[in-house]
Design a protein that fits this description.
Blueprint: H1 4-24, H2 26-30, H3 33-52, H4 56-79, H5 85-98, H6 101-104, H7 112-127, H8 142-155, H9 167-183, H10 186-206, H11 211-235, H12 245-260
Length: 261
């Protein structure tokens, strides 16, 4: 592994390159905080994909892209006279020290739950907010947001103790969802569906499962099996629309065996 000096040298090299690009590259000169926003979101999802694939080389690449974005934002901030990269790094260092009083202060915290509770309490005091849920970004995808809401509520002591404790709630919500379906009220059906998904997400969270990752893996399984069906249908001179459901089911089972083999 590189020494601390080599790491600092590499970071300094990135800063120098950003200074040059910002001064000389037509594209880089045009970028703003706003124009970079959607690109940063895209890079974050690319990193998530690499983590899901456990591709360490791709993770390294995507981390570099995100680090570039952080330096880019800091460069723009310095041009506005608002902050530079040193301000950004010092601020996060100060925050980490302040929010870990069990490491840097006299507070005791002997479990993960105690650490989380301390973190949330300190965060509320820092921001002057009245609800722990104010720390959940509005722009998060709904499934990820549900996980964070549950985590925040748990930090305040409002949660189930065990995953199995959520089963009763899931069954209750499924019954209400079924009743809503029978009513034909679309708004009510949608509301109850949301309750079902939220309850299942809480079960996943308490089971240390990532529902976003679980769903994405199921998406990939479905894509593989469906494209296998399309390929086999094409080899037989057909499209899926030309096939019966039993014929498609047979191909689906073939794909399932292959994907699980």
């Amino acid at each position: 592994m590189n020494s601390r000096a080599a790491k600092l040298e590499a970071f300094g090299r990135l800063l120098d390159i950003m200074d040059t690009l910002r001064a000389e590259c037509p594209w880089d000169k045009k970028q703003t905080l706003e124009s970079l926003r959607h690109l940063t979101i895209e890079e974050t999802y690319e990193l998530a994909d690499a983590i899901e694939e456990n591709d360490l080389q791709e993770i390294k690449k995507e981390l570099g892209d995100l680090m570039l974005h952080m330096v880019f934002y800091s460069k723009i901030g310095s041009e506005k006279g608002a902050f530079d990269v040193a301000d950004v790094l010092n601020a996060v260092c100060d925050k980490l020290i302040h929010r870990h009083p069990h490491i840097y202060g006299g507070v005791e915290a002997n479990s993960e739950e105690e650490v989380k509770a301390n973190w949330e309490a300190i965060k509320l005091k820092e921001k002057g907010t009245t609800s722990v849920l104010q720390g959940v970004p509005r722009g998060l995808p709904a499934l990820v947001k549900a996980i964070r809401i549950g985590d925040k509520a748990r930090g305040a002591g409002f949660d189930w103790d065990q995953p199995q404790d959520v089963w009763g709630k899931i069954k209750e919500e499924l019954t209400e969802f079924e009743e809503a379906q029978l009513s034909g009220n679309q708004d009510k059906i949608e509301s109850e569906l949301g309750d079902v998904l939220f309850s299942i997400t809480n079960f996943a969270r308490l089971s240390n499962l990532d529902p976003e990752l679980a769903l994405e893996r199921t998406n990939k399984k479905f894509i593989y099996r469906f494209t296998y069906m399309e390929k086999k249908a094409a080899e037989a001179g057909k499209s899926l629309k030309d096939m019966t459901l039993p014929e498609m089911e047979s191909l689906w089972q073939e794909a399932k065996v292959l994907s699980e083999g």
